[in-house]
Amino acid sequence: MKYLVAAINFLLCVLLNGNEAASTQNRGVLEAILKFIPEGTRFFNEEPPDTNKILPEYDFIVVGAGSAGCVVANRLSEVSDWDVLLIEAGDKENYIMDIPNIANLLPFTEANWKYKSVPSSYSCLSMVNRQCRWHRGKVMGGTSSINFMVYTRGNKRSYDQWEEMGNPGWGYKDVLPFFLKHENMNIPDLACNKKYHSTGGELTISYAPYRTPLADAFVNGGKEMGYNIIDYNGEKQNGFSYTQSTTKNGTRCSASRAFLHPIKNRKNFHVKKRSRVTKILIDPVSKVAYGVEFVQYNKKYRVLARKEIILSAGAINSPQILMLSGIGPRKHLTDMNIPVFQDLKVGYNLMEHAGIPSLQFIINQSVTFITNDLIRNRSAFLDYFYYHQGPFSVPGGAEGIAFLDTGNPSNPDGNPEIEIVLLASSVSSEITYHKLLGYTEEFYNAVYKPVEGVPSFTLVAVVLQPKSKGRIMLKSADPYDNPLIYYDLFSNHEDVEKQVLGIKEILKLSKTKAFQKFDAKLHDIPVPACKHLQFGSDDYWRCAARHTSIGLWHHSGTCKMGPYWDPNAVVDPRLRVYGVKGLRVIDASIMPTIADAHSNGPCMMIGEKGADLVKEDWGHGAASH
Hints:
Layout: H1 2-16, H2 24-46, E1 57-63, H3 67-76, E2 84-87, E3 115-116, E4 133-134, H4 156-164, H5 172-181, E5 183-185, H6 188-191, E6 203-205, H7 213-224, E7 228-229, E8 239-242, E9 247-248, E10 251-252, H8 255-260, E11 269-272, E12 275-282, E13 289-296, E14 299-311, H9 314-324, E15 327-328, H10 330-335, E16 342-343, E17 354-356, E18 360-362, H11 371-374, H12 378-387, E19 398-404, E20 418-423, H13 430-436, H14 441-447, E21 456-463, E22 471-473, E23 484-486, H15 493-510, H16 513-516, E24 521-522, H17 538-548, E25 550-551, E26 583-585, H18 600-617
Parallel strand pairs: 1-2, 1-14, 2-11, 5-6, 7-8, 14-26, 15-16
Antiparallel strand pairs: 3-4, 8-19, 9-10, 12-13, 13-14, 17-21, 17-25, 18-21, 18-24, 19-20, 20-21, 22-23
């Protein structure tokens, strides 16, 4: 509740400006805020409370209340005979966080782990200390509570490839039912396609109730380029679309809200918040994982598991916890003075999607979202607080998505290698560039300060199938030392070339009639470190990509799923950790290759399927899909 009060006080200060409080409009704002407060209070009361007195033993312990962990906890606690404990390092979700268009402010809060990569020689070169910022949710709901809410499943070929790599049951035909199981499609034109959508699940998918003219320009521009307007979560993915998002009635629908709020009263379900798991307890003789250690308010606890421990802590924290517990590369753990229980390639195979957010287009109409203007817009606040509509209902300003097979634009069943995201917002703000993305002050002042507050939009090119890979390593055996994140977005040169290809598609899109209605012009102040190259040349864009590209929070792969004969596999196709009984990993870290998607949706699918595997293995019937 204290966070809600603090946020409301902030909004009052911004909106009312002291002596104007008597105006009719400001009285309306006050009334709207007073309506919003009890709504937020109800939200807090719906979240499962922190359990005061935990049991000494549970059937299942789930570590991490993120996109996968929330699903796992929900599904396992459906079995009334099983006691389930969910442990989360972060605090409760804040209702202010569920205002979609303030997503870019959330990484500044304590709901973010605030990780940074090790300084790079290949990418993030214009960022402070050459370090990319790796935002991860440290809150009930995990990253689903702070992300931009874009919902994509990915191309069917991603999952078919997993199966071809020796993972039976993970082909697209097998995983689609698990996407459908929890989907509540709230877009009528799409919901009628019963093969690819369902309406009875917990996770609401919708279009934003507000749309700028740029969203229409985006999809119409795609048509001009020869692409189809498609449902990218349907049968085929090659084309343009408005953004489908994890939003419900104009508010964020996080994994916690979708899967945990409805089960707050289950007697067999307990939650420990602000609790950091420091070690998995493993019997050195039998190699059975039998419990966990965690710390809450500087007090250490041990809790035991009768059946299994399930790691759903994400692609950074799951490998960290495994290695701290003695499961990982032998040499690395020995160097850290950690006894080795199982020698596995934990932490390897780190994958991420690279995107270049520096293609900003200046336009001649004030139809975009400018952060500083938006938070002072009384009318926008009224629309949102009263009706959950208006500009604040747009998820992070992301209004359009395109998946492009550039060699086959007219074939809707092509295999896209590039994604383009439309942000109907000005990224030329100190909040976004200098603080959120981590660029140096010198870079920001040289390139973007000159157009601060100028109406503009951003088109972000994303490499969908990157070949670059990295690694998570321990800094020390201290669980409170952040792990080392070694990841160079462009260590593989092919990824740079794909990024340049994406940039060229963006430039074509910006020149379509649809965008030229706004006289869209590329912001052409060059990246300082690249100004020796001809602006707009391939070499210039290669240089700009290495200096300005970011990761899109789609971290995956660090506890790779694979068959027994795969020397790099950490978990088997049933997500059981090799060589240790009673321990599974169920989150994005099991992905053998990165899904062609924003990872929130695939993570929930993994949670759904993983929970089903657990139920099967413990005698609760065939897969329930």
